[in-house]
């Protein structure tokens, strides 16, 4: 799926680093993020930059939502919107519910 960033390369305290080594998923923990956002942002950096550079392509589902919108059949799209692709296909902001 993806190559995780080595724990010793993440900007964090030694205590946080030990947690990340034991359980890498802690990097996306809300409690850690509110205390220190650097680990999450460092791990997500390639994905965030890829989204800005439009490296990721919309799927058939994204285009289907656009088609529904064009035919006035789309009320709203509920999405985590982690990739921004709903916006890339031209759905208006008021139809996207993150």
TrEMBL record:
GO molecular function, one term: transferase activity
Keywords: Transferase
Pfam families reported in the protein's UniProt record: SIR2 (PF02146)
Highest taxon above the source species: Eukaryota
Protein name: Deacetylase sirtuin-type domain-containing protein
Annotated source species: Hemiselmis andersenii (Cryptophyte alga)
């Amino acid at each position: 799926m993806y190559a995780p960033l080595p724990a010793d390369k993440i900007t964090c305290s030694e205590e946080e680093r030990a947690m990340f080594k034991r359980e890498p998923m802690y990097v996306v923990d809300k409690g850690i993020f509110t205390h220190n956002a650097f680990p999450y942002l460092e791990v997500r950096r390639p994905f965030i930059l890829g989204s800005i550079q439009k490296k990721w392509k919309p799927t058939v589902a994204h285009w289907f939502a656009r088609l529904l919108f064009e035919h006035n059949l789309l009320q709203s799209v509920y999405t985590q919107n982690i990739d921004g692709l709903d916006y890339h296909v031209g759905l208006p902001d008021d139809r996207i519910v993150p």
